[in-house]
Write a structure and sequence with these properties.
The chain is mainly alpha-helical. Helix content is 66%, strand content 0%. The protein has 2 domains: 67 residues, no CATH class; 40 residues, no CATH class. The protein has 6 helices and no strands.
Length: 131
């Protein structure tokens, strides 16, 4: 993948920047909720085969299969990994979606209790890498 070629079109550079940002998001070890969400969103974007991903890769002058292969290599060699805090934020996100869609009051209370137990992360809990 060549990003330093001199005569790139502005549109090509734009789509390459989109890919670069997605890689940076996936590599982030940030402990904030938005860092974890951006990391998971980029992870999903790279690993789920979608037309929009393919179009962005081709528009950036990259083969989407090679980009996915490089991403999977980063996962395999554990360059892309999640911290415990990031995993808890992702659990929080999932629980919140479940809470919003749940109609049973008892189940909602149970979900809310777990959400509140995770909310301690807002106070800056720090842990070591998990995955």
């Amino acid at each position: 993948m060549e990003l330093i070629r001199e005569n790139r079109l502005p549109e090509e550079r734009l789509f390459q920047a989109v890919l670069l940002q997605a890689f940076e998001d996936a590599l982030s070890m940030g402990q904030h909720k938005q860092d974890a969400y951006a990391k998971q969103d980029s992870y999903d974007w790279f690993t789920n085969k979608t037309k929009i991903f393919d179009d962005i890769c081709w528009s950036g002058n990259f083969d989407p299969e090679i980009v996915r292969q490089k991403f999977n290599e980063l996962i395999s060699n554990k360059t892309i990994k999640y911290t415990k805090v990031q995993l808890k934020w992702l659990r929080y996100r999932w629980l919140y979606k479940e809470y919003r869609s749940c109609t049973d009051k008892g189940q909602r209370r149970k979900i809310l209790k777990e959400i509140k137990s995770i909310e301690g992360l807002k106070k800056g809990e720090k842990t070591k890498n998990l995955i």
